[in-house]
Write a structure and sequence with these properties.
50 residues; elongated; mainly alpha; 3 helices; single chain
Length: 50
């Protein structure tokens, strides 16, 4: 989520979250072993995130 969802600012957290989840060379990437199927900027609201 990002407060940029209603403003044309650049998303700064999404790129880092993507790296944390998918980077197989990092500790977190090895543990999570994840992939990202979709990317979008959403409001900081639990309903929008889920």
């Amino acid at each position: 989520s990002d407060t940029c969802s209603e403003d044309p600012h650049k998303d700064r957290s999404g790129i880092e979250l993507l790296r944390i989840i998918t980077d197989r060379d990092s500790g977190s990437g090895k543990i999570l072993n994840g992939y990202v199927s979709q990317r979008t900027i959403v409001p900081d609201d639990e309903f929008s995130i889920m």
